[in-house]
Design a protein that fits this description.
This protein has 5 helices and 30 strands. It has 431 residues and is mainly β. It folds into 2 domains: 252 residues, no CATH class; 152 residues, no CATH class. Strand 1 and strand 2 form a beta hairpin.
């Protein structure tokens, strides 16, 4: 199925028309004695992971033709011989959201070599098996009396302690670990943190005694970036509070893997076309709050916008295969993802093409059933995302690291989550 024919192709042609020019800036073969393996899993409402069976897996040759079709077994696994003429792999299944709505999810891995592709995750937020969730009511009155106007984080929830916020509630599920709590002084000069467990608890009153570890301010020059302090154990706090920039803190008494993340959200202009633009970078912080390697986000240079413009013109041209190449922007880009997403008659759809710093996308065939579902695509967007690290590796080596990361209990401990950069552009096509 051609990626940009029909709705997407016409929309991109229209998008480029607004730009007024460029940016500134085979045959059968014997099976090899090699195999390809992968596992499909689902993450349910509370994050419980389990295998998912009967997910469709397609092997394509270099031209995009389907040469083999499989389905994962009852353990979500597939391990089969890798043909010598195989080049790309598509995995296709359905995500489900809490309201029962469905998203057709396809990911096509480009330029694949024999080996283990690791876990391919799907969402099953309508499934609460093993969760046994309950609501916990948290009384904040004593904490307000002890630390008025302070900023409180409970997990990912944030609020300011005022007379109007005397209580809150959290949903707690049986498989959750402890939840982090942070208290940042009203003048943002100091902070404390702790860890609580809400298992078998329906009501809780927070006091200063629950905050046991003093914060260390991170010595960071955030410039124009939103900055967030992270620990790989699962908590964070941001410098954008009360409408202005404030310090961020780490807690060496509780956590040993501390980071900051710079964010930037803006619009990117490719010629006269506009995309929503998001970029961030992770960098390590030592126990004294000092940054060990101040890795800033990628700047939106002409090298990026020129490469992005060439992606759009390649798709709009319908000259196969479609080309992408971001090596002039940064040759240390490990993964490029180009995704088409939108609404279809059965819900929504997302088709991701995942490759390295450069490559090509042929005219992929799918099964008749998948092509029929995608035929109704409308309200489409094109999303291009890039992820890079501090050094160069071949795509297959990055994929091995990603497969190992997906098998970890805490994926934040993977070297792929050490120091990295990310950039994403989203173009609305149906305007």
């Amino acid at each position: 199925m051609n990626f940009v024919k029909g709705t997407c192709s016409l929309a991109i042609v229209g998008l480029l028309a607004a730009c007024g020019g460029g940016s500134d800036g085979g045959s059968s073969a014997l099976l090899q004695e090699q195999q390809l393996s992968l596992q499909t899993v689902k993450h349910n409402y509370c994050g419980v992971e389990s295998p998912i069976a009967n997910i469709k897996v397609l092997f394509h040759n270099q031209s995009g033709d389907v040469i083999n079709e499989y389905a994962t077994d009852q353990q979500g696994q597939l391990q089969v011989d890798w043909p010598s003429n195989a080049k790309h792999v598509t995995v296709a299944g359905d995500d489900y959201y809490t309201d029962g709505s469905k998203n057709l999810y396809l990911i096509t891995e480009l330029d694949v070599e024999a080996g283990d592709l690791g876990e391919i995750p799907f969402l099953a937020f309508n499934d609460q098996a093993g969760c046994n969730c309950h609501k916990v009511d948290i009384d904040l009155q004593q904490l307000i009396n002890e630390a008025p106007d302070s900023s409180l984080y409970i997990g990912s929830s944030y609020l300011q302690l005022t007379s109007g916020t005397t209580s809150m509630s959290k949903t707690w599920c049986d498989n959750y670990d402890g939840i982090s709590i942070q208290l940042i002084a009203a003048d943002n000069s100091s902070s404390m943190a702790g860890d609580i467990n809400l298992s078998n608890v329906n009501n809780l009153s927070l006091t200063l005694e629950d905050f046991t570890s003093p914060g260390v301010e991170v010595n960071v020059d955030w410039g124009n970036h939103i900055t967030r302090a992270y620990a790989k154990e699962g908590w964070s706090n941001t410098n954008l509070l009360h409408g202005g920039y404030v310090p961020v803190f780490i807690y060496p008494g509780l956590t040993s893997n501390n980071y900051v993340r710079y964010h930037e959200l803006d619009e990117a202009h490719v010629g006269n076309a506009t995309a929503e633009f998001y970029t961030y970078s992770y960098t390590k912080v030592d126990s004294e709050g000092e940054i060990t390697n101040d890795l800033q986000p990628w700047e939106l240079s002409n090298n990026f916008t020129d490469a992005l413009y060439k992606v759009l013109t390649s798709f709009a041209s319908n000259q196969l295969p479609y080309q992408y190449d971001f090596s002039n922007a940064d040759n240390n880009i490990a993964f490029t993802r180009i995704a088409l997403l939108g609404a279809i008659d059965t819900g929504s759809a997302e088709w991701i093409f995942s490759g390295g710093v450069s490559g090509e996308i042929p005219d992929f065939d799918l099964t008749e059933a998948l092509e029929a579902e995608l035929a109704s695509l409308h309200s489409a967007a094109l999303r291009v995302s890039l992820r890079g690290y501090s050094g160069y590796k071949p795509l297959n080596e990055w994929r091995k690291l990603r497969a190992a990361m997906n098998e970890m209990d805490n994926s934040y401990l993977s070297p792929l989550n050490d120091e990295s950069r990310f950039m994403e552009f989203t173009f609305e096509l149906d305007r």
